[in-house]
Amino acid sequence: MEKPAAPRDTVVARHHTMHLNDEIPPLSDFPSTKDIAQHPLFRGEISRFLWRLLTLRLSKTGRWFVAATIIFTGYGAVSLELQSYVLFCYAIGLWLAAAVYVALSRPQVTIQAKHPERVCVGETVSVDVTVTQTGRFAGVDLTLLPHWLPQAVDAVPESGVDLPPLTRGKSIHVRLGLRCKQRGMQQLKGYRVETDFPFGLIRAYRTYYQPQSLLVYPAFHPLTHLDVPTGSRYQPGGVALASHQGESFEFLGNREYHEGDSIRDIDWRAMARLSRPIIREYREEYFLRVGVVLDTYVAGGPDAKARAADFERAVSLCAAVSDYMARQDYLVDIFAAGPNLYHLTAGRSLAHLDQILDILACVDPSPDEPFEILEPELQENLSRITTVICVFLNWDETRLAFAQRMAQAGAGVKVILVRDGACTMDPGGGTAFTGPIPTIDKARFDAGPEEL
Questions:
Q1: Sign of dihedral through CA atoms 14, 20, 21, 22?
Q2: What letters, b where the CB count within 10 A reaches 16 and e where it falls short, cover 205-220?
Q3: Domain DUF58: where (predicted)?
Q4: Of all residues in the chain, what percent carry a pLDDT higher than 70?
């Protein structure tokens, strides 16, 4: 009996957290819509508080006025003239007035936000937000922004969406954009409404925590042709789990009755028309079942960043292969082993491409060879798989032996290498059991391969 795939919630409820040889991101990547706690240099509460005070509480004008106030203070401290304190006093008075107004004028609104559950890497997802004024006084110079976005998600526009003046009970519908730069399960914390009215120095804001998840699946270029070698086995059609559309056997035509034929197959209308027994003849339908194996091994070292980029391209190529199989009505088994083992059977109404993309959105690279974990699961299902498509990140003895074992078990084997640089072993023209081995480097991937 086939081992069931992991529950959907288990598959998608993981973060894409592993980043090899990360560089320290510049502070310009952390505007007021991003959480500075994600920055590796801001580990202490004091540093985070000061940064949030500078970017979240003070407006751009306010930051410049802070610098001017410091200059006024320094000038007044070193000068003996009484008039030197005038500018300092004006600045302090303005700051005090702005602080008092901010304390009394926090936005009083409610918001409701909705967005799609999935989006592709590089795309901008639209967030529809309804803002309703609940306070007694009209909201003036209000701005709506996402609050503390993940590092892989940018607000569009970065400055947020300006709202018109809102009187009590009035609602307005606006749209925010979120551009997703990295695949994975991104957690959105909520939204913020702010105003710097009336002085433009200090922002009064209110945060609305509405935790939501956004699944970002890999971008891929659809394939127009994929050479799929077939093994010696077929998946019989008509089993209950294969499809609920149509019957198990394909109708070929009618013929005369022969002794031993089942009376269930008699075509009574044809028999009445021809005055002799006529049988409906069928043939059994077979499905091609393909296993797609994703190599997740990314070792550390000086080229770890390049290998991690290869892995991301391999994930996108797996999505393209799965998409092609789904369009060609294949049964597809996706296998990937990183920190967790993934196996999902899709096609012919079993599961949809979206569920394969859910897995590929969340699979992480592994610092260890994945085949010890992956191969037992594959071997358990190999008797029903006709072709194994291996998307490898390297070509070495380990991967050669793995492909050879698949071929010896009777499956057709196709190997696709995704690597920008030389492999451990030269794939050359391939092997007798794999045929030619296409290699996808960065240039070919960026051009969008259409045939493999």
A1: negative
A2: bbebeeeeebbbbbbb
A3: 255-368
A4: 87
One-letter identity of residue 406: M
Strand 171-180 versus strand 153-156 pairing type: antiparallel
Distances (CA, A) of 81 to 71, 85, 86, 109, 167: 16, 8, 10, 49, 49
Tokens encoding 232: 């010696």
115-158 pLDDT, tens digit per residue, is 999 999 999 999 999 999 998 888 889 999 999 999 999 999 99
What span, in angstroms and rounded, lies between the C-alpha atoms of 331 and 243? 10
Contact 157, 145 (CB under 8 A): no
3-state secondary structure of 331: strand
Is 0.90 surpassed by the pTM of this model? Answer: no
Tens digits of per-residue pLDDT, 408-428? 998 999 999 999 999 999 888
- 25-58 per-position pLDDT tens digit: 888 888 899 989 889 899 899 999 999 999 999 9
Strands 184-195 and 204-217: antiparallel
* Gap between the Cα atoms of 392 and 423, Å rounded: 11
Burial of 409 (0-12, 13-18, 19+ CB in 10 A): middle
- What domains lie within the chain, and their CATH numbers? 8-12+221-232+287-447 (3.40.50.410), 31-217 (2.60.40.10), 249-284 (no CATH)
Tokens of 352: 């949809």
Q: Looking at the chain, how many residues does it have? A: 452
The one-letter amino acid at 1 = M
Task: Look at residues 16, 102, 91 and name the one whose alpha carbon lies nearest to residue 339.
Answer: 16
Count CB atoms within 10 A of the CB of residue 399.
24
Percent helix / strand / coil, the chain, rounded to 5 = 30, 30, 40
pLDDT > 90? residue 300: no
Q: Is the dihedral of CA 313, 317, 323, 327 positive or negative?
A: positive
